[in-house]
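Page 47, continued from p. 46.
Same chain as before, 147 aa.
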Amino acid sequence: MTLNGAQRQHLVSAYVTVCHLLLQMEEAGFEGRSPTGAGSPLTPLPEDVVESICGPLRALRQRLREQVVSMAPDELEEFELPQSVGNTVIWLSNLHDRIRGAVDSLQPGKMRKYGREMGDDEQLLAALHGELTQMLKQARTALDHEE
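Result:
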């Protein structure tokens, strides 16, 4: 029996998910990197403990890859092809916009929703926002040059 296209795509998707989650587990266990990417650092575990957990999962990943190569080679090859430079620039632009949102949230007017009193820190925040905005503009100029 042969898998249909949707089933082959799902097989590749499951493999990609396993790869991504295993990488997050290794980064959390070995390096103490939070899987959220933004959380507080975790405490790394001893290497032998991480190996005892991740070793079998690496074997799982390898076995799954073998099956994907056998059952959905074209879909896997297509997935593994790098996207265009334009797509990379689009992602960078989207992430830049998210950074801009975080920076804009530091404006004194927006900070007031967390409490009206800021004292002398209001001027400091206004200056910081202006400085960070200039850095964002530099990055945007570079991004626009790549588009």
